[in-house]
Design brief:
Layout lengths: L2 H15 L4 E6 L5 E6 L12 H11 L11 E11 L3 E12 L11 E10 L4 E11 L4 E16 L4 H6 L3 E19 L2 E16 L4 H9 L8 H11 L10 H9 L5 E13 L10 E11 L10 E13 L4 E13 L8 E2 L15 E2 L1 E14 L2 E13 L10 E10 L6
Antiparallel strand pairs: 1-2, 3-4, 4-5, 5-6, 6-7, 7-8, 8-9, 9-10, 10-11, 11-12, 12-13, 13-16, 14-15, 16-17, 17-18
Length: about 425
């Protein structure tokens, strides 16, 4: 019984020598108390990860569905961009997923995206879009809008105008807003209504090529070298027509259309949609037929016209990471639209590689097949081939069919986006 008090005394002395020790007593069955102490370790500072590691982890976590934890799960990104028509620039993107009903784990989340692009050629693009899914995907509210400032060109109306290649410099300022709402009638079959507003303004000036070439011929100007000298020789040979060099000025003069035009529409549509997600589907079918009416009393500039569009998309998984995507799109106009409301071929989604608007007319049809392959995590590639045609001003001819093919890089910005 002599050793126990000695041990307890040493422990007690150690407790008083420790500045921030905590003391606890445990009483044994024979009435003795054993006291002990411990000193908490100082809190460890979190390990600071390298910058590149933090960036990789940020994008790696953004593919995880956090819509059950957050009101809205946003991810931001930016990087350089390049286009033949707009040159070098920087692009910024924000994408978000959210659930209006967090108790519904079957319906895909709603989405919203905001995109901006600014280039060295003074091209400015700000665009937003989103889909709200209600009541277990029985109702949908979709919206989109854009602001564009584009120092581009106008080639005229019709296939022949685009083929000849006479282009007039045209700086376009455009603002557009569209909204649609649909409800399910039976299963995945929906009917709905739509509305939208589009304002487009144009700044342009005449090239003065006719007067200039006549001045060279009459000796008032010296013949230049380079491209203008070649155009002068072609003019003398009858192979260049300077009066066609200003297609926008000629169109405005011939039609009486206004360079600055406001167009508003109301529409109805029906669609059948079995896609697994609306933004980046991997299986299912999407079919949509929509009729839009642009009445003059709704604020349209000087005229009333109508427009009908048809979209058919098909998605099928092939093997691990591979998706086959097929698209068919048709656009037809009744009446005479404003100059910027004609159906246009080209752009970022269909018939890539063609300057958007070089080929435009009252009727358009395009089709495209894509093979999408995921390579590693968020990275993938795509190969496509497509074809299309515009007509109305000119007759439909199979020989006027335009083709597009190529390959590109795909990056999964968010889960299924």
């Amino acid at each position: 019984m002599l050793r126990r008090p000695a041990v307890l005394l040493l422990i007690s002395a150690g407790m008083h020598l420790t500045a921030h020790a905590q003391e606890t007593a445990i009483r044994s069955s024979d009435g003795d108390s054993l006291r002990y102490s411990y000193t908490p370790l100082p809190p460890q500072a979190p390990e600071k990860r390298p910058f590149l590691r933090r960036v990789v982890d940020y994008f790696g976590e953004s593919t995880t569905d956090k819509t059950f934890e957050k009101k809205i799960d946003f991810t931001f990104a930016g990087g350089p961009s390049y286009s033949k028509n707009t040159s070098f620039g920087i692009g910024l993107l924000a994408a978000g997923l959210y659930r209006l009903d967090r108790t519904d784990s079957v319906t895909a989340p709603s989405n919203v995206s905001i995109y901006g692009n600014f280039t060295t050629q003074k091209f400015v693009l700000l665009r937003f879009s989103g889909d709200n899914l209600f009541n277990h995907n029985r109702q949908r509210l979709s919206y989109s809008g854009a602001f564009v400032y584009f120092p581009g060109a106008f080639y005229g109306i019709g296939y022949e105008a685009g083929k000849e290649g006479y282009a007039q410099d045209l700086t376009t300022t455009m603002g557009t807003v569209n909204v649609s709402y649909c409800t399910s009638l039976a299963g995945r079959f929906y009917v709905g209504v739509s509305g939208g507003l589009n304002y487009t303004g144009a700044a342009y000036r005449s090239s003065g090529m006719t007067e200039y070439l006549e001045g060279i011929r009459d000796g008032r100007y010296e013949k230049p070298g380079g491209q203008r000298g070649e155009l002068y020789d072609l003019w003398l040979e009858g192979r260049y027509l300077p009066e066609k060099q200003d297609p926008f000025s000629n169109y405005i003069a011939a039609t009486g259309d206004r360079p600055n035009a406001l167009n508003a529409h109301v529409g109805i549509f029906a669609q059948y949609d079995t896609r697994d997600v609306t933004f980046n589907a991997s299986k299912g079918v999407f079919v949509k037929a929509e009729a839009k009416w642009y009445p003059e009393w709704l604020g349209n500039t000087r005229r009333t016209f109508g427009r009908f569009t048809l979209t058919f998309d098909f998605y099928q998984r092939l093997w691990k990471g591979a998706v086959l995507a097929c698209d068919l799109y048709a656009d037809a106009t009744a009446g005479t639209p404003s100059w910027h409301m004609y159906a246009k071929m080209g752009g970022m989604e269909r018939m890539r590689g063609y300057y958007e608007g070089r080929y435009r007319d009252k009727r358009l049809v395009e089709t495209q097949i894509e093979l999408r392959q995921k390579i590693y995590r968020r990275h993938g590639v795509v190969a496509w081939i497509g074809g299309g045609q515009v007509w109305g001003t000119n007759r439909f001819r199979w020989s006027n069919t335009l083709c597009s093919f190529g390959c590109g890089y795909r990056f999964e910005f968010k889960n299924r986006m």
